[in-house]
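W.,

You were right to be curious about this one. When I first looked at the sequence I had no strong expectations either way, so I just let the prediction run and decided to look at it fresh. Below is the sequence, 250 residues in total, followed by the output.
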Amino acid sequence: MAPEGAFAPKVAVAAKQVVAAPTVATPPAVVAAPAAVAPKAVSTPKGAVTPKGERRRYALVSAAAELLCEGGFEAVRHRAVARRAGLPLASTTYYFSSLDDLIASAVAHIGLLEVAQLRAQVATVSRRRRSADTTADLLVDLLVGSESETRLTEQLISRYERHIACARLPGLREIQRRSLRQRVDAVAEVIDRSGRSVRPELVSALICTVDGAVVSALVDDRQDPRTLARSTVIDVIDAVAPFDRRPVQV
């Protein structure tokens, strides 16, 4: 059984982590990042040694993250980022060694925000035995998104586009791996809180299965990503995470 609070990254300092030294790290068609973009490991931030510098760098990272989510890697350009942040064009090269450095920081920033959202969702899940249907509802909200979220399809396209791009770009792989590990931790804790056995390798397999179902639904617009993901989880949850015979500890 996963330990209580196993999924507990310190999100309260997320903004500071992105400003100081980012460490973390959906398609009508998946669009790979341009060949010219090959981010290297994120270096020590330039210029962000004063409160004003930290605020400006954070504004640039936030702006780049928004553009990345809205339009993919092609949308992240120095001029567009500076305009979105309301800062001079020269600030993008003052605070970042290259466009690659800025993109890597944006991916890290998005990862931190996603971790914060996952942690908040997990914290609301009580401990009790849950049926396959009820467990699936929780996991679909966690892995796909809430039914009430607007622009869900666009958000999913952006997510899977980043996954594919990070697979192509060595400098972003570790950032994305960290983000994926947080998803495993979140799903494992929800399964544990639902009175079911947790095996990390099977949790990873479950997430991959859901991701495959979601991508399939995005390609075929006659299918709804949440509906297909939910039926997929219901089909496999009892095999992947059977009920734990031990009493549920509340």
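Here's what jumped out at me. The chain has a mean pLDDT of 82. And, maybe more interesting for your project: The chain has ten helices and no strands.

Coffee later to discuss?

I.
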